[in-house]
Amino acid sequence: SDSHFPVPISPHHVEYSLHYPHFFPSPDSNSSSKKIEFADIGCGFGGLLISLATLFPDTLMIGMELRDKVTEYVKERILALRVSNPGQYQNVSVVRTNSMKYIPNYFEKSQLSKMFFLFPDPHFKEKNHRRRVISPFLLDEYAYAVKPGGIIYTITDVEELGEWMKSCLEDHPMFESLTEEELEADPVVKLLSFATEEGQKVSRNGGQTFKAVYRRVVPNV
Ligand code: SAM
Q: Where does this protein reside within or beyond the cell (predicted)?
């Protein structure tokens, strides 16, 4: 149950010096202005984060994963990469948490520039749709955490879930879809299909995928 993992009482209490010791050498350095900007929700074995870490070496990023053993594996993976590649992978970390409950404990308003939902669990039955990580209610939370102009990336091999995620994003007043040209120009979009373990499995099996990539709207002033 949730009681088995600690949850910071506010984003200010996230222990940056434990996650990113290279950037925050002491607990006091928590007050530094550098903040987590990318969140991979349900990161699984961490493949996307590992790719992003070297593509955006100065951006702090975190995976949020519910399964304890999987989270431990990702931690070990990152530590091993840090050892074998001195100076690299210092910007990536993982936390065991329930992202459906605790996003506001980790991120302030407009803190994130990218959020990822790669191959989330489908929860097929209608009565279980409320367990989906993209929903109208959760998009309100994500719209709060993602800064104007920030991007939400989703992909799935389950057509029905793909349509659901797209329609939730399409119907939400705070998100707008990227144009084909923008999708083409964004190097991160290319990672969605292949960077994660689930994506590689789907592609090995020749499965189709369905993407929805939306921008947090910039309010008119
Ligand atoms: N994104 C990874 C990939 O593409 O390989 C993993 C996909 S896997 C099908 C879905 C992951 O989401 C699982 O690792 C699961 O434990 C995690 N998950 C499900 N619900 C979650 C929640 N509420 N909070 C955090 N992680 C969750």
A: Membrane; Nucleus
- The Cα-based distances of 62 to 80, 150, 214 in angstroms read 17, 16, 20
* Other beta carbons within 10 Å of 84: 9
| Cα 121 to averaged position of ligand 1 atoms, centre (Å) | 7
Tell me, what DSSP letter sits at residue 68?
H
pLDDT band at 64 (very low <50, low <70, confident <90, very high): very high
Q: Which amino acid is at 187?
A: P
Identify which of 62, 133, 161 to mutate to test ligand 1's pocket (most ligand atoms within 8 A of the CB).
133
Q: For residue 197, which atom of ligand 1 is closest to its CA?
A: 5
Which CATH number is 1-107 given?
Answer: 3.40.50.150
Integer-rounded Cα Rg, in Å, for the chain is 17
Q: What distance in Å separates the CA atoms of residue 69 and residue 58, rounded to the nearest whole number?
A: 28
ipTM: 0.99
Contacts of 193 (CB under 8 A, 6+ apart): 155, 199, 202, 203, 209, 211
Annotated domain spans of the chain: 1-107
**How far lies 146's CA from each of 6, 84, 117, 184, 193, in Å?**
23, 33, 14, 22, 22
Q: How many angstroms separate the alpha carbon of residue 1 from the centre of ligand 1?
A: 16
> Which is more confident, 129 or 157?
157
Please give the positions annotated as active site: 121
